[in-house]
Design brief:
mainly alpha
Length: 71
């Protein structure tokens, strides 16, 4: 949790200092995201290819919704 003193200090900063703080925080967040992906490791990626059953299900739902709208 962020302390009230820190929030007060941040509010008192100049516009340029606020942008600098944002840049630092966003940079740290981006670095943490890249740490999630490890080199030389496999990660599953979903592909719509070979998902005919899912396409059929979606088409059935869309047709049912269309029929209900026209009823």
């Amino acid at each position: 949790m962020v302390s009230p003193e820190l929030m007060t200090a941040l509010r008192e900063l100049s516009r340029s200092d606020k942008f600098y703080i944002m840049q630092v925080l966003v940079s740290e967040l981006a670095q943490q995201e890249t740490d999630l992906i490890k080199p030389n490791q496999d990660y599953p990626v979903w592909s719509p290819y070979g998902a005919e059953a899912a396409a059929d299900t979606m088409l059935s739902v869309l047709r049912a919704a269309q029929a209900q709208d026209h009823a």
